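Re-run requested by the PI after the first attempt was lost when the workstation crashed. Everything re-entered from the original request form. Ligand of interest: fe (ii) ion.
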Amino acid sequence: MAENIRWLEVFAARAAARELLPWSHPQVLTIDELRLVTASLQQFQLGEGSDGSGLVRRARKSRLATLDHDFIPALELFIKEEQRHSRHLARFLQREGAALLRQHWVDQVFRHVRKCAGLELCLRVLVMAEIVAVPYYTALQRVTTSPLLQALCANILGDEADHLRFQAANLALLRRSRRGWDAAEVLLWRGFQVATLLVVWHEHRQVLEPGGYTWNSFRLDCARLLSCVNENRFEEPAGHGRAAAAN
Ligand SMILES: [Fe+2]
Ligand SMILES: [Fe+2]
């Protein structure tokens, strides 16, 4: 049964609460923690930040915009949540005396692929980034003793769980209105997925491994989330505003 969640309400309802983080907590990262997390946090901070204008432009032209009048405003709030992740990570890094990255090749590849894509592929590429974010922030939350960074990770993980549901529902609607992928397209997409997992493992294993992941558990976790998205089937979401469709 497809979930029927009013995403506009979900995203709007939590915007203010997500700003409530313990910024004034005196604990800062230890030297060892800084060494462990800085480079990978810098990459995620860069990757979370995007103005989203290309995505909204594609979305406005799609049938989702005509099927659901809440779709574009919900998408804009979704983009704002990603920008908030980036803003909070930037503030955290600066508080710890770490510089922010201006660019990174992984981020550039993701942005380039999204620029070349239509709405569906654009959403699929975004979903891959959100899937790998789940084990990453889970591991990060485990390896740090900083209450601020732990709270930041908890917020982001809560948001990303909903983002996966939001995008799964959007992708399910888009799938209904197009031809199936041919074998070459499936092969290319699988190649992109595998490459993404390998790159993320390579770039972030210094956090993932001490956070309890092996390559196998990381890739299996990502594969499980990917099949949840593909089938648009998730466990019951905990405690956020769900609403039945208006009769
Ligand atoms: Fe995010
Ligand atoms: Fe997200």
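Saved to the shared folder this time. The two ends are 16 Å apart (CA to CA).
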